[in-house]
Design brief:
Elements: E1 5-9, H1 13-22, E2 29-33, H2 36-45, E3 50-54, H3 62-72, E4 77-82, H4 87-97, E5 101-104, H5 109-149, E6 155-158, E7 164-167, H6 173-183
Parallel strand pairs: 1-2, 1-3, 3-4, 4-5
Antiparallel strand pairs: 6-7
Helix pairs in contact: 3-4
Length: 187
């Protein structure tokens, strides 16, 4: 995710052009759409990590759009940009779209850059967390299968740092490794 994809959705092309200009030296792939429908189309076609949407657009408000993004693309980080910040719009954006950040127009470029860096870091951390959780589940399933096919072959416990220790009281380690290779299909 070294070049995160950032999508700006605003019905005013000069706003998206200004945002792109502010980020021209940043390491992002920048996209823009002039409507919520166009934004949803781009989300289906491109690898987008962050969406920044205007609130007041014809057809679908930014809050409605970001709520739809949340439903269809839950891992995409969502932000809203508005010229008329109302408490109602902010509450709707937070509750329905689970927005990461609420910007007002005109947006301070330094704030935008810092927020995007934080959002990319958060996205990377969440992605890595999911990857590690999947790996843990995969390894746990492997250990469970090993215990089912060869009961008592392993005693699984954790050391003081949480590392998993596998011991074998009945067979030599080489025999244990041979059994594991057979179970995972490497024999």
């Amino acid at each position: 995710m070294s070049n995160a994809g950032v999508l700006f959705v605003d019905d005013e092309p000069h706003v998206t052009a200004a945002l792109k200009r502010a980020l021209r030296r940043e390491p992002y792939r920048l996209f823009s759409a002039d409507s919520a429908a166009g934004g949803l189309r781009l989300l289906g076609e491109e690898d987008i990590d962050i969406v920044i949407s205007d609130e007041q657009m014809p057809g679908m408000s930014g809050c409605e759009f970001l709520a739809e993004v949340r439903r269809k693309y839950p891992s995409v980080i969502r932000m809203i940009l508005t010229g008329q910040a109302s408490m109602e719009a902010a509450i709707s954006a937070i509750n329905d779209g689970e927005v990461y950040r609420f910007f007002t127009k005109p947006c301070n470029p330094a704030d935008l850059k810092a927020t995007l860096r934080q959002a990319v870091l958060q996205r990377r951390l969440v992605t890595e967390s999911h990857r590690l959780l999947d790996k843990y589940r995969e390894q746990s399933a492997f250990v469970e299968e090993l215990q089912k096919t060869s009961p008592g072959v392993l005693e699984v416990r954790q050391d003081h740092q949480g590392a998993i220790l596998a011991t074998n009281d009945d067979e030599s380690m080489e025999e244990l490794l041979d059994e594991m290779r057979v179970l995972i299909g490497e024999a």
